Each structure stands twice: as C-alpha cells, then as structure tokens.
Please model this.
Amino acid sequence: MKTYRFNNSQSLFTRAAKVIPCGIYGHLSPAPLVPPTAYPFYAVRAKGSRFCDVDGNEFIDYMCAYGPMIVGYNHEEVDAAAMKQYEAANCVTAPTPVMVELAEYLVDLIPIADWAFFAKNGGDVTSYALMVARAATGRKKILMVSGGYHGVAPWAQVPGHHGVMDDDYKNCIRVKWNDYAAFERAVNENPGEIAGFIATPYHHPTFADNELPAKGYWQKIEAVCRKEGIVLIVDDVRCGFRLDMRGSHEYFGFKPDLICFCKAIGNGYPISALVGTDSLKSIVSRIFYTGSYWFSAAPMAAAITTLKELKRINGPKLIRETGEKLLGGLVEIAKGYGYDLKVTGHPSMPYLRITNDESVMLHQDWCGECTKRGAYFVSHHNWFISTAHTDEDIQKTWDIADDAFKAVKNSRGV
Model:
C-alpha cells in the first residue's frame, strides 16, 4: 500500500516557525504527533469525513478537527444556513433574531435548560460557569477532577505551565475521577466554601485510558451538591450531542445546574453555549461577560441547522453504531498480528492504546503508519466519529490498519 510524503507540509512549517510562535501552537501543534514525519501539518480542502493536505494526500479523518466536525465537513445544509445569514447580517451593532431562535431551540431540546448564553470557545463558557457558581453561592472554591481539561485559562491549568501562577488556581481543589469518597472528603474539609464542581460527563484525559463513570457516581455527586448548595457544572464541550441530543448528563442519568457546550454544536462554526436552570438565571443576568464576536449570527444559524440535522437522523445513535463497527474490526485485526488494542471511553469518541508496549511507542508507530496510508489517527488523544463516516470509510480504514500492523510487525520483528 502506498505511503504518503509530506514535503510541502514540512516546508510550510519551516516558514511558519519564523513568523508564528511554535509554527503551529496549541492543540494542533505537531508536538504530540509522534513521529512528526508521519503527519500532515496543513490542510487545504475538506468534505464529508475527509480532508486533503498541502501535498495532495487525502485522509479519512478520525479527529474531526478535534471535535467540531460532527455531520461532515462542508455540510451543504449547514453551510447554506450560515451563508444565508452572512448575506443578511452577521456581526452587527445589535443582535439578530437568530440568537433568540437558537436559545429557544436549546431550551426546548435540553430538559434542564431554562436559558442559553452564547460565546465562541469552550473555555469562554467553562470560565463563565465558574463565575456564575461563585456569584450564586458567594463562595470561592471550585472542585475539579485531576487530569480533567476545561480550557486554557490559568485556573484550568496545573502547576508548571508557563505563565500560570500559584494564585491562579489556589481556590481549585482537584480530586480523582470516580473517587466519590475523595469528593465527599473535599466537601467536608471545606464546609460552606465550595461554589461548584466542574467535570466532563466521563473522564477523557490525554495520554491515558478514558473512564466512564462508575455505577451511581453521578447520582451521589448530584445528591451532595443539592444538599450542600454546590453548583453542579458539566463540561460537555467535547461529548456534547455525541452521546445524547439532550446533553450527556441524560445519557448517564443525572441533572446538573449548568452545562457548557461547544465543538459539535455548530459543525465547525465558532460558537459555544452555557445553558442552565431557572434558579441561576437572575444571577447570570447580573454578571458582565461578553466578547466582540459573541453575537455573530452566522454561527448561530449553522448551530440550529446542525442540531436539527443531528436530531433528524438520530446522530448519537448513528455515531455510536459507526464507532462500534469500526472499533470491533480494528480490535480483531490487531489480534491477528498478536497485538492487544484496548478501547476505552465511548464508541463515539474512543481512546485506543496497544497494550503490548507500556511505553506507547508501539502505538505511536502504528498510528503514524496508519496516517501515512490515509487514516488520520493520533496516539495521545481520544478520536471522534461523525455521521459522515461511511461503511466505505470503515472498510478502507480496516485495510489501512491491517497494512500498518504488518509494517510495524516487520520493522520491529515482534
């Protein structure tokens, strides 16, 4: 099977490094892509489940732009809705009616939602959720999960990150995921001081197996929050609308006070949302929090169309079934070469790891070999499945995975 070359990507990155810090910064940085020579750095086109890089290589994309793509790149209906709104009005001196329409749609769609607030990035609304919790309770401390990701604001980062000071996170208390005893202990050790608890619906860290909630975990957490007046915040930025159209909390059977959405809500158009219960609406109304582009109308129009399309086709069910089929085949192919391919998390956004080598180098090699053949896999992060992934994509991915396992086996001799 032919393997790709990335000469133009490498050349463009060399140019970029002269004028852009790191060349490519943030989560799209080449840094975690090991080996970097196996990956494209720049894309020029995308359609459906695939994108093409600057070297003319085509990839079946299992990162989906790290989550925003859910119904396919350049989805005709979504893009048409955005373009229609662009032609009418986008970023204007006053909001447009589509903002009201999107808020109404989310309130109707999500059972706990009595209102909706819009911004641009996931970090915008996770930070806002903390402000709301503190304003509602008059308390300053926030409970979080160790290794949980809620954006790049200083409070969300950990000691050792450049530019982050001790004071930035001194009121953030971290507890282990699925450790209810640790959560309860933290609450008891800080009586009347905890404003909120923020966590993702299930634990999906990088460079580590993902973990679903233990039986009864969320229900016990919710009970303590209700009893102690702690605002329960779900960071549904990554999982949102992939597990359940009503919010991932419905999938796991509990009721938060606030939910943070982003990524898939607009299929790539820049928009995020914080939704919450009526008891917090007056508090939210008092907090000044805004941004130059937060009222942009075209992304709101795209979000309405994306959500309606997902609901029409039962997107979460389709994505789950596609993920289960893809993953089942990959696990069996791995077995044929004597490898144990471990899958954790949810089938719609799984984390994979070859367990035969705890250093992860074997898994990195395999992901790189797959990417060089046209199936974009990363080894450090959960993948994403979309409604645009087809049976043809899956079959081609299986063929690529098989050839990549063969290459790894031959190169390592084991």
User: Anything to note?
Assistant: The mean pLDDT is 97. The CA atoms of residues 97 and 297 lie 8 Å apart.
